[in-house]
Amino acid sequence: MQPTIHRGKLTAEGFRFAIVVSRWNDFLTSKLVDGALDALESHGVEEDSVEVFKVPGSFELPLTCKKIAESGDFNAVIAVGVVIRGGTPPFDSVAGEAASGISKAAMETGVPVLFSIITANTLEQAINRAGVKSGNKGYEAAVSAIEIVNLYNEIGEPGIQPQVRTKEVKVPPSRREKVFPHVV
Prior knowledge:
The chain has 184 residues and is an alpha/beta fold. 41% of the residues lie in helices and 16% in strands.
């Protein structure tokens, strides 16, 4: 027996992506965003088809992702954050609520919301997973976003077809913020 196998293509052309990033641990989340942007660009996304939204921390990612997904302006949303375990319990609640909320946002909206939140026990682990010594989790999430929007497009999922940008958005030049590791 040879079943039909469906798999999304790896081309981002014609699709729109939102990246929602936590400013907490910005020195690492910025590396994940760079990885995601690199993946999208190398797979053919047009420059004006990606928007980045910054939130204070990983706890704020789920609701922001949901609101962006509900807007209908994007084919997929990529949630980016870093939560490092400290000597206090907030790590478990922040990481758990972020994961649960992001999954819920995708299920409630029908828009793929990709999880690119590093949860690590140590700063060294987080640095390694942000692409310093191994793969960049932002890059990996963006490639997954490309594949899933193409798969949904193939199966005829409403709202997942490539979109044409109809409005011009002026983004002010980004400014460098003071960054330092945050451990919860």
